[in-house]
Amino acid sequence: MSRVVIGPCAVPWSGGGYFRAIPFRVFRWGVAKRLRAQSWFMFYFHPWELDSEEVPPRGMARLLKRRAYGGRGRMPRDLRRLLTEFGSVRIDDTLRSRGYAPPRAVVGASSLA
Q: How many independent structural domains does the chain possess?
């Protein structure tokens, strides 16, 4: 998970709930800061964070509702802005470019062993 150093703390700064909770200008600042310090930044989001038709279950606790649903209205716009400015590369392509290769499958081995 990408982190941004702010004072004596390394703050999680990867996407998902962090992206929705932190105002875009501040998040963008953190991404730029991270990229100045390191050549890569890992960003993720959950597909349901872009589902504008999903509604919170009835009776969901207010704090949980805020964590799970807060900022989702601006998520598509802010994601578009982030990708426009910084671009994107698939993680498997990035790993391969850094010399990592997926493990070889063993013929006849069970995937649930």
A: 1
